Hints:
Structural class: mainly beta
Radius of gyration: 14 Å
Distance between the termini: 41 Å
Strand content: over 45%
Helix content: under 10%
Low-confidence stretches: none
Oligomer: single chain
Largest sheet: 7 strands, mixed
Amino acid sequence: QVQLVESGGGLVQPGGSLRLSCAASGSIFNINNMGWYRQAPGKQRELVATISSGGSTNYADSVKGRFTISRDNAKNTVYLQMNSLKPEDTAVYYCNMYVISQNGVWRTYWGQGTQVTVSS
């Protein structure tokens, strides 16, 4: 079994910054893609950013130039640095990892979600 634990959400003023972290633990052999998604009230969950095992990144147009995704493979952790935050970034943010367990099974795991609120 694999668990993903997120941290770093909170309340921030427009123009401010936050850094989200998501650490995986458990029966992990390797992790392929990692990513962040978000879901605002009344809206569908949407992709924010992804990063491959080789470090290639992909961003939603709405966050390009403001958000940066990174990973620390030694710590099985993915980060999301969010700068120049806007009220429309308010959402619950979920991390996502495609993990191969020690028993050889590939599976996608999700974090529990962390609330980010951008408001003055």
